[in-house]
Design goal:
Elements (H helix, E strand, L loop, with lengths): L12 H12 L6 E5 L6 H13 L14 H7 L6 E4 L10 H12 L8 E6 L6 H12 L5 E7 L7 H5 L2 E4 L5 H9 L8 H7 L4 H8 L2 H17 L5 H8 L4 H21 L7 H6 L5 H15 L8 H10 L3
Helix pairs in contact: 4-5, 7-9, 8-9, 11-15, 12-14
Length: 321
């Protein structure tokens, strides 16, 4: 189950104000589909909205008070008028049985909150039967109820589900917002600039990376890539070490580096250059960077195929030449 906090961030203020106005005018749709990049805290915004809708005394900005009976039970994850649907442990999909439980929940009488609220995290993970089952609650909404969906991949949802929801695209933070937030956290030795470059500007993902082994692995792979480009290591030497590593993750790292390099090159920003982007400048030019990005994307389609691991990594690295 996803660890959620009922909080919003600086980059959410505009959308939160829009939601507040809709509530004040009693125009908030009963079904809202939020989408945005993972690692930016967007699901926390949706969770904060759920708590606010259940709160008995929301403040003037529509935030939950945190002190009423409803808020205290919500914080204890035991609210009788709230239901959270997410991937069950060790499962790859949200099942039709889970959605049927949602139907039953919405048919119940409210306990003491003004609304009943369902929140579906990773909504794109619903299998076909589950998605079709959800349509019933979207088409025939229960009184005083809200269904809040969040996904990073809205196009993977059934068109009939998207059409029955008010769709809200959540913008990722700009560089200044992400940097300000991340620098306020308790970081280790890795700079906030470098962490954001590694994670494509996603501050919450950067905080997770900073505390894990994946950052070390990512840095090692980058150093090996530079060594290959400099002629200090061969493709075979590097491919031998990385052939058993997650291929999709290796490609995602490279796509992020190239994407960040292109953005910085177009923006002409010099004071936020990280070691990674500085090193890549020796080997990338604007015309070749776009071509490399497209070829890496094409190769990503083969990442899950049962191909020879060493051969795939060699081909991956060869794209840089």
């Amino acid at each position: 189950m996803t660890d959620l906090l009922a909080v919003t961030y600086a980059w959410h203020q505009t959308i939160w104000q829009q939601l507040e106005v809709a509530r004040q005018q009693q125009h908030l749709p009963h079904a809202l589909l939020f989408s945005g990049q993972l690692g930016c805290g967007h699901e926390h915004l949706v969770y904060a909205l759920a708590q606010s809708l259940l709160c008995l005394q929301p403040d003037t900005a529509a935030y939950a008070c945190g002190q009423c009976r409803s808020c205290k039970v919500f914080a204890a994850q035991a609210h009788p008028d709230f239901m959270l649907l997410d991937l069950a442990e060790d499962k790859q999909v949200i099942t039709v049985e889970q959605v049927r439980g949602l139907h039953h929940f919405l048919e119940l009488s409210r306990s003491y909150s003004p609304h009943r609220v369902v929140m579906i995290i990773h909504a794109d993970a619903m299998n076909t039967n589950a998605a079709n089952s959800l349509l019933k609650s979207l088409e025939e909404p229960a009184d005083n109820s809200y269904i809040l969906l969040f996904t990073a991949h809205p196009t993977q949802l059934l068109p009939t589900i998207r059409s029955r929801c008010q769709q809200l695209r959540l913008a990722s933070p700009n560089q200044a917002q992400a940097l300000t937030w991340l620098q306020a956290q308790a970081l280790g030795q890795t700079s906030a600039h470098k962490l954001l470059a590694i994670t494509g500007g996603r501050p919450l993902a950067a905080l997770v990376e900073e505390s894990g082994e994946r950052l070390q692995q990512q840095t090692l792979f980058f150093n090996h890539l530079i060594a290959v480009l400099a002629g200090n290591l061969s493709l075979t030497e590097v491919a031998t070490q990385w052939e058993k590593y997650d291929r999709e993750e290796l490609l995602n790292w490279q796509l992020t580096w190239v994407q960040q390099w292109i953005r910085q090159s177009l923006a002409g920003v010099g004071d936020t250059t990280t070691l990674e982007l500085t090193e890549l400048t020796r080997y990338l030019k604007p015309d070749t960077a776009w071509q490399l990005y497209e070829r890496l994307l094409e190769l990503k389609a083969l990442a899950t195929h049962p191909l020879n691991g060493r051969l795939l990594v060699e081909n991956m690295l060869a794209l840089w030449f």
